[in-house]
Design brief:
Blueprint: H1 10-21, H2 23-32, H3 46-77, H4 80-113, H5 125-137, H6 141-162, H7 164-168, H8 174-198, H9 206-230, H10 232-238, H11 243-262, H12 269-295, H13 301-328, H14 335-358, H15 361-368
Helix pairs in contact: 1-3, 1-12, 1-13, 2-3, 2-13, 2-14, 3-4, 3-6, 3-9, 3-12, 4-5, 4-6, 4-13, 4-15, 6-9, 8-9, 8-12, 9-10, 11-12, 13-14
Length: 375
């Protein structure tokens, strides 16, 4: 067990909770954006499209940096086997529980109520399997990736720990961060192109995309977070505002928006998206860390409540958003009014369900991976 003193990073807890809770406005705004989704309003809103794309352009990159930071911190605190057990329980149990309790009913709702699967009976066995993989994993994909990154981290963190003294004295700058991530993403792009030309059918497989391609894309961000714990200068770099990165966010987001709307999926859409998302993630990493360090690095009961509730809210908000989109949004003809009404409905019901689940031990265990409810 590590002798390193326990530290509480309140601002990182807060940022992680905010990123999780941003899933609600992200999915509600999808209804009113120009992006094709399960439920879309008759007319799209340019403002809500930009809002939706902005959230999507950086949220998970920053989230996985924070996940890597906390994962390595806990790796140093516990024995490796105990760490692996705790992390897989905290992530894996909610993932497995949410499939029969949330995403399976969600799939049945879409299959029987919406027109998303009009030819389901004509699907081949593989098409049904592949569709079910997409739909049952659905918005839970990041939990599956966290489980896989935890198992990868079990090996990589051993190596990182063995080189503690070598890493601690490193002085790294943003060019090192950008250069390292760019190299990793270029390798990812090359791998995708090779697979696309050699095994095109494999690239359409749901599990292949999530278990391999998504994991490989977010692994560098996960390890960057672990390095931020290991290397003092790297964390100091993240929490110091950098004007060029803040301005770069605007340029990167404009490139992201242009690529989403004007690039072809048969061309370089996904490779460009990966590179732009990497840059956007780095820029927003500095904005989130530096702003959070100055504004959110305090202990607050309200913030602690949101931190504890964020995972449950994320798990249940998606089917609630679909219910709102299918049954209530058609009654509201103003996009912005519908968006805020959707936020009120989804957040309101989600927090109500959260309070109910806290009082039922089996649900508390299934959706948090913890037996006891610590307040």
């Amino acid at each position: 067990m590590s002798t390193q003193p326990q530290q509480r990073e309140y601002f990182l807890d807060s940022i992680r909770a905010i990123l999780m809770l941003l899933g609600v406005p992200f999915h509600v705004s999808l209804i009113y954006s120009s992006q094709h989704w399960t439920v879309n309003s008759p007319t799209s809103s340019f403002g809500l499209t930009l809002f939706n794309e902005f959230i999507h352009s950086f949220r998970m990159q920053v989230f996985f940096v924070i996940s890597g930071y906390f994962s390595y911190m806990l790796f140093l605190r516990y024995s490796p086997h105990r760490w692996l057990k705790i992390r897989l329980e905290r992530v894996g149990i909610p993932f497995l529980a949410a499939i029969p309790l949330i995403t399976l009913p969600q799939f049945l709702l879409l299959k029987n109520v919406s027109d998303k699967f009009p030819h389901w009976s004509q699907f081949t066995l593989y098409e049904k399997y592949n569709t079910l993989c997409w739909e049952l994993i659905s918005h839970l994909w990041f939990l599956l990736i966290l489980c896989l990154l935890t198992m990868i981290g079990y090996q990589l963190f051993h190596w990182l720990k063995q080189h503690t003294e070598q890493w601690q004295g490193k002085q790294l700058g943003w060019w090192h961060v950008l250069g390292g991530l760019t190299l990793c993403i270029l390798v990812w792009c090359l791998l995708r192109r090779v697979l696309l030309f050699s095994l095109p059918l494999v690239m359409k497989d749901a599990l292949m995309n999530i278990v391999v391609m998504q994991v490989l894309f977010y692994l560098p961000f996960f390890m960057l977070g672990a390095l931020a714990w290991q290397i003092t200068s790297l964390k100091a770099l993240f929490i110091k505002p950098h004007p060029l990165l803040w301005m770069g966010t605007i340029v990167a987001f404009c490139a992201y928006h242009y690529n989403q709307h004007y690039s072809s999926g048969d061309g370089w859409l996904y490779e460009l998206d990966a590179l732009i998302s990497m840059v956007m993630g780095v820029c927003m990493l500095n904005i989130c860390f530096s702003s959070g360090y100055r504004l959110l690095n305090i202990h607050s009961p309200a913030v602690s409540y949101l931190v504890n509730a964020s995972l449950f809210i994320y798990l249940v908000h998606h089917p609630l958003t679909l219910v709102y989109g299918l049954y209530l949004s058609p009654m509201i003809h103003n996009n912005y009014l519908g968006f805020f009404a959707g936020l009120a409905m989804v957040f309101g019901v989600s927090f109500m369900l959260y309070e109910i689940h806290l009082r039922i031990p089996v649900l508390r265990f299934l959706f948090s991976g913890k037996i006891n409810n610590k307040k």
